Protein backbone atom coordinates (compact mmCIF):
# COMPACT_ATOMS: atom_id res chain seq x y z
CA UNK A 1 0.00 0.00 0.00
CA UNK A 2 2.78 2.48 0.86
CA UNK A 3 4.39 1.88 -2.52
CA UNK A 4 1.20 3.01 -4.29
CA UNK A 5 1.13 6.27 -2.33
CA UNK A 6 4.74 7.02 -3.26
CA UNK A 7 3.98 6.24 -6.92
CA UNK A 8 0.94 8.54 -6.90
CA UNK A 9 2.88 11.32 -5.18
CA UNK A 10 5.66 11.23 -7.77
CA UNK A 11 3.12 11.75 -10.58
CA UNK A 12 1.53 14.78 -8.92
CA UNK A 13 2.38 18.20 -10.30
CA UNK A 14 1.85 21.52 -8.52
CA UNK A 15 -0.97 23.82 -9.52
CA UNK A 16 0.02 26.51 -12.04
CA UNK A 17 1.40 29.74 -10.56
CA UNK A 18 -1.53 31.72 -11.97
CA UNK A 19 -3.83 30.01 -9.45
CA UNK A 20 -3.39 32.30 -6.46
CA UNK A 21 -5.68 30.88 -3.77
CA UNK A 22 -3.94 29.66 -0.62
CA UNK A 23 -5.77 26.34 -0.93
CA UNK A 24 -3.56 25.34 -3.88
CA UNK A 25 -0.69 24.56 -1.49
CA UNK A 26 -2.69 21.44 -0.58
CA UNK A 27 -3.65 20.40 -4.11
CA UNK A 28 -2.02 19.48 -7.39
CA UNK A 29 -2.89 17.75 -10.63
CA UNK A 30 -2.02 14.25 -11.70
CA UNK A 31 0.28 14.35 -14.73
CA UNK A 32 -1.48 13.49 -17.96
CA UNK A 33 -5.03 13.67 -16.58
CA UNK A 34 -7.80 16.18 -17.08
CA UNK A 35 -7.80 19.26 -14.88
CA UNK A 36 -11.44 19.00 -13.77
CA UNK A 37 -10.30 17.28 -10.58
CA UNK A 38 -7.51 18.34 -8.26
CA UNK A 39 -5.69 15.80 -6.11
CA UNK A 40 -5.23 16.47 -2.40
CA UNK A 41 -1.54 16.28 -1.46
CA UNK A 42 -2.45 15.16 2.07
CA UNK A 43 -4.73 12.18 1.35
CA UNK A 44 -4.49 11.80 -2.46
CA UNK A 45 -8.26 12.13 -2.91
CA UNK A 46 -9.62 13.56 -6.16
CA UNK A 47 -11.74 16.65 -5.51
CA UNK A 48 -13.90 18.32 -8.16
CA UNK A 49 -12.51 21.64 -9.33
CA UNK A 50 -14.53 24.14 -11.36
CA UNK A 51 -12.59 25.46 -14.34
CA UNK A 52 -14.32 28.79 -13.70
CA UNK A 53 -11.83 29.28 -10.88
CA UNK A 54 -14.02 28.47 -7.87
CA UNK A 55 -12.04 26.76 -5.12
CA UNK A 56 -14.96 26.26 -2.71
CA UNK A 57 -14.92 22.46 -3.05
CA UNK A 58 -11.19 22.41 -2.40
CA UNK A 59 -11.47 24.62 0.69
CA UNK A 60 -14.34 22.54 2.06
CA UNK A 61 -12.33 19.33 1.61
CA UNK A 62 -9.34 20.73 3.51
CA UNK A 63 -11.57 22.01 6.33
CA UNK A 64 -13.67 18.87 6.70
CA UNK A 65 -11.13 16.13 6.13
CA UNK A 66 -7.96 17.70 7.54
CA UNK A 67 -9.23 20.34 10.02
CA UNK A 68 -7.22 23.10 8.35
CA UNK A 69 -8.72 26.60 8.15
> Using DSSP, what is the number of strands?
4
Principal-axes shape call = globular
> How is the main sheet built?
4 strands, antiparallel
End-to-end CA span: 29 Å
Structural class: alpha+beta
Give unreliable regions as ranges. Answer: 1-7
The average pLDDT is 80
Q: Strand arrangement, largest sheet?
A: 1-2-3-4
> Taking Cα atoms only, what radius of gyration do you get, to the nearest Å?
12 Å
**Percentage of β-strand residues:** 15-25%
The helicity comes to 25-40%
Order of helices and strands: HEEEEH
Number of helices, counting only DSSP H or I runs of 4 residues or more: 2
InterPro entries: Znf_BED (IPR003656), Znf_C2H2_sf (IPR036236)
GO molecular function, one term: zinc ion binding
Keywords: Metal-binding, Zinc, Zinc-finger
Organism: Dreissena polymorpha (Zebra mussel)
Structural commentary:
The protein is α+β, with helices and mostly antiparallel strands. It is 29% helix and 20% strand. It is built from 2 helices and 4 strands. It has helices at 2-10, 56-66, and strands at 12-14, 27-30, 37-40, 46-48. A 4-stranded antiparallel β-sheet has the order 1-2-3-4. Strand 2 and strand 3 form a beta hairpin. The chain is globular. It starts with a helix and ends with a helix. The model is unreliable at 1-7 (pLDDT under 50). GO terms for molecular function: DNA binding; zinc ion binding. It holds the Pfam family zf-BED. This is BED-type domain-containing protein.
Amino acid sequence: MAEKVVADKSKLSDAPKKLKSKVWQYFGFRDGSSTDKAKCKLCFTDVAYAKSGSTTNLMQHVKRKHNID
